[in-house]
Write the structure tokens for this entry.
Amino acid sequence: MRFAKLSERDRALVARATALLKTGESEISSVSAGLRTRNDREYHGLCVDPASTTEGMCAEFSAIGAMVTGGDRKIDTMVAITRKGRPAYRVLPPCGRCRELARGLGNPYIIVQRPGADGESLTKVKLSELMPIDWSSRSK
């Protein structure tokens, strides 16, 4: 897997997604997401997961919905944040459903926490590295 170093813009994206979760966390929102488009615009979202239903929406879906509503169509970089104890937060890799949706909107960088790494362990990797065979490859 080919990891890339985070830029200052990537670090700022992580910080803004973390800030959103700090202010938006509730009994129905435990994950936030931020994404930057190829047009250098940012969009953010929270998960919507009410306890009263089995249906919910991931934070990445929420951010992607905001992006499409804003007129953008291609993701450059994406990150998801969840709580890891109090007061710490951590980067969360996207679920399979979110990977499929993001893959349809480009081959973005996904900010991840490198397994087994200590200290400054955030890095980014192309989505195709996390999900080498996507659904569209079945029809080719």
User: Anything to note?
Assistant: The first strand starts at residue 31 and ends at 37.
